Amino acid sequence: MDMEKNSLAKYKLYLKSKDLKTSTIKNYSWHVGQFLLWSENKKITIPLLKKYKEFLLAKQKNIGSINLRLVILNSYLHFIGFKHSFELLTDNKNRLAALDPLQLQNFLDQPTKKNNPVGHRDKALLEILYTSGLKVSDLVSLKKNQVDFLSREIILSKKHIALPPYALHYLEKYLNFRKDKSPWLFINFDRSKKAGEKPLSVRSVERIVEKYALSLRPRLKITPQILRNTLAYNLKSQGVTGTGLKEALHFQTKVGAGNYLNRL
C-alpha cells in the first residue's frame, strides 16, 4: 500500500509540473488510484494490464469511458517507464482524433526546450494555432499589426478573436526576439536573408507540427486538424453548443458546426 501511495504521489507531482487544470489532475489521479487498488499492489506486467482491460470491458459499456481510462493509464505507464501502451477501442461512428490534456500539454511544451528565435516562434505559433481555432491558411496570413495586446485580441476583417494571457505572453516573447521589419506575424528563420521577409507557408506549419509530434515519447500522430479537433473536444466537454462551436472554430454555418460537433 505504501508503494502505491508513493507512486501515486509522484505521479501527481508530475501532473502538476505540466500546469494542468486541477480538475484534470484530480481525474487522472483518481483513475490511476483505482487501477492500483484493483491490482492489489502487484507488480505491473503485460498479463496484469490485459486482465485490467478485460475488467474494464466487462464493467463499462461506454467506449468513450473505457478509452478515457486507457489513455490515463498509458500516461501513467509512460511516467513509470513501463514500455507498453493500451490500444484504444474504436466504434463505428468515425470519431475524430483528438489529444488528451496531458498529451496536448506535452506537445505544446516541446518548443520551449530551445531558447532561440525558432523555439520562441514555434511555441507562440502552436499556442495561437490551438487557442484561436484558426485554420493554418488563416494563421500564416496574419500580420503583426493584427494583434492587439491591450484588448488581447487578433483583429480580422469581420471579427475579433480573444486570446488567453499565456498565448499572448509567448507571442510577445517571440516578437521581442524579432529584429526584422517584416510585417508578417510568423516568418521563416532561414539562412537566406530574403526568407525572413516572407510568412511561413501552410506546408511549413504542417512540418513544424509534425516535427514536435515526432519528438514526443511515445510518438504521436498530430496534425493541425487534430489540434483543432482537440480544441473542439475540450469545448464540448465544457458544454459548448453548436452555436458556440461555430464562433470558436469559425465555421460559416451552424449546420457545419453541428455536424462536426456530433463527430467528436
What report would you give on this structure?
With 264 residues, the chain is mainly alpha-helical. The protein has two domains: 91 residues, DNA polymerase, domain 1 (Orthogonal Bundle), CATH 1.10.150; 161 residues, hpI Integrase, Chain A (Orthogonal Bundle), CATH 1.10.443. Helices cover 57% and strands 3% of the residues. The protein has twelve helices and three strands; from the N terminus they run H-H-H-H-H-H-H-E-E-E-H-H-H-H-H. The chain has a three-stranded antiparallel beta sheet, with no helix packed on it. Helix 2 crosses helix 4. The longest helix has 18 residues. It is globular and about 60 Å long. The model has no long low-confidence stretch (mean pLDDT 89).
Summarize the structure.
By secondary structure, this protein is mainly alpha-helical.
What pattern of helices and strands is seen along the backbone?
HHHHHHHEEEHHHHH
CATH class of the largest domain: Mainly Alpha
Low-confidence residue ranges: none
Number of helices: 12
Largest sheet: 3 strands, antiparallel
Number of domains: 2
* Shape summary: globular
Radius of gyration: 21 Å
Distance between the terminal alpha carbons, to the nearest Å?
Answer: 38 Å
Helix content range: 55-70%
* Helix-strand category: mainly alpha
Q: How many strand elements?
A: 3
Q: So what's the oligomer here?
A: single chain
CATH superfamily name of the largest domain? Answer: Intergrase catalytic core
Round the mean pLDDT to the nearest integer and report it.
89
CATH topology of the largest domain: the name is hpI Integrase, Chain A
- Strand percentage lies at under 5%
CATH architecture of the largest domain: Orthogonal Bundle
